[in-house]
Design brief:
This protein has helices at 24-28, 48-56, 119-133, 143-148, and strands at residues 2-6, 10-15, 63-67, 71-76, 81-86, 89-99, 102-110, 137-140. The protein is an alpha+beta fold and 151 residues long. Residues 19-25, 58-59, 62-63 line the site of iron/sulfur cluster.
Length: 151
């Protein structure tokens, strides 16, 4: 399972298949990671430094975190894509098409000027999370998405 959690400053990615249940996240930042709550990750009023420290101790990076750099990433289902915006200017997108129970994720691209900010990962996770919640079968013809899914 892949989930994405955001606030204005940071984005946290969760890949449940990598989790070995060490609970380092829960012990390191109990206000933000609580397995007895839904959702179990809460970034409201999060201290970004504290979240980073907790996630540094996550074995195998089941949880990971990036700064948003003021880039907004939105899921735009009407356009079959997620899209990234810098002050209203579109600087990246992840495109898909849905056919029955299958979603084909075929293209992910970010303006090279914005490289090194994990924007492609944010774009891909937005779509993957939606697909998993809708119980769609993901066909990742985009090599970047395939890599995230471990295929
Ligand atoms: S620290 Fe990582 S491996 Fe440990 S419980 Fe949290 S998510 Fe799972």
């Amino acid at each position: 399972m892949h989930r994405i959690y955001e606030n204005d400053d940071i984005t946290v990615f969760w890949d449940s298949e990598r989790c070995v249940h060490s609970r380092n996240c829960v012990m390191g930042a109990p206000d933000n990671f609580n397995v007895n709550k839904k959702p179990w990750v809460n970034l409201e009023n999060a201290d970004a430094a504290k979240v980073w420290q907790a996630l540094d101790k996550c074995p195998d990076k089941a949880l990971s975190c990036v700064y948003n750099h003021d880039i907004k990433v939105l899921l735009e289902e009407d356009n079959c894509r997620s899209a990234a915006y810098d002050a209203g200017k579109k600087i990246g997108e992840c495109d898909y098409k849905i056919n029955g129970e299958t979603i084909t994720m075929f293209h992910t691209e970010v303006d090279p000027e914005y490289g090194g900010k994990s924007i492609a990962k944010r774009l891909a996770y937005k779509v993957i999370e939606m697909a998993e919640k809708k119980k769609l079968t993901i066909n990742p013809t985009c090599s970047y998405v395939a890599k995230i899914l471990g295929e």
